[in-house]
Structure prediction request, 201 residues.
Amino acid sequence: MSTPRALTTRQRAVYEMIRGLIIDRGYGPTVREIAHHFDIGSPNGVMCHLRALERKGLITREAKRSRAIELVDAAARGRYAMQMAGVVAAGPTSLAFEQDERIDLGQILYRDDRFVLRVSGDSMIDAHILDGDYVIIEPAQKARPGQMVVAQTPEGEATLKYWHPEENRIRLQPANRQMKPIYVKSAKVIGIAVAVVRGEL
Prediction:
C-alpha cells in the first residue's frame, strides 16, 4: 500500500514502523516504543503523529489498550496474504508464480510458504470443488496415496487430482464419476491441497 502524499516525512516514517511491526510480529508498537525509536522526548509528541495518521484514515486506536494501534486497510496489514499463483485446472494447465496478486484468507489458513490456486474445470466436483473455487496448497515434493495434490507432468502441465502411484505409472484420479483417470509414467508433486474456499473472495 502506498501512503498518502499528504503525510509529512515523520508521519510517513511512523506509519511505516507501525505497519512493519504489525506485519512482522502481529501487533503494533506502544507509544513508548515509538518515542524510543524516533527519539521523541514526550508521549504528546507521539500522540500528535498518531492523531494525524488517524485523521488521514491510516490507523485506528482503542482507548485503554497499550497496543491498540491497528491498520485500517486490510491490504496494508498483509500478514495473512498468501501468494496467488494462478489457475489450476481440474484438467491440465500451467502455474504462474510471477503473479503479484495476493489473497487474504486469515490466520487460520495462513502459512508463510502456502499459496493459492483458482480452480478451472469440473473434474473435482464430487469432492465439492467447483469451477472458480480457490484451493490452498501446502508445498510438498511427496504425497501419500489418495491425497489431493497439484501434480505436474514432464510436459509442464499441472493439474489438481488425487495422487495414486501404481506399478510403472501414476494415476491422477479426478473426483468426477463421468471422467476417466489420467495415467502418466511420471509426475512431480507440487503441493498438497489443504483447504478449499468457495467461489469469489
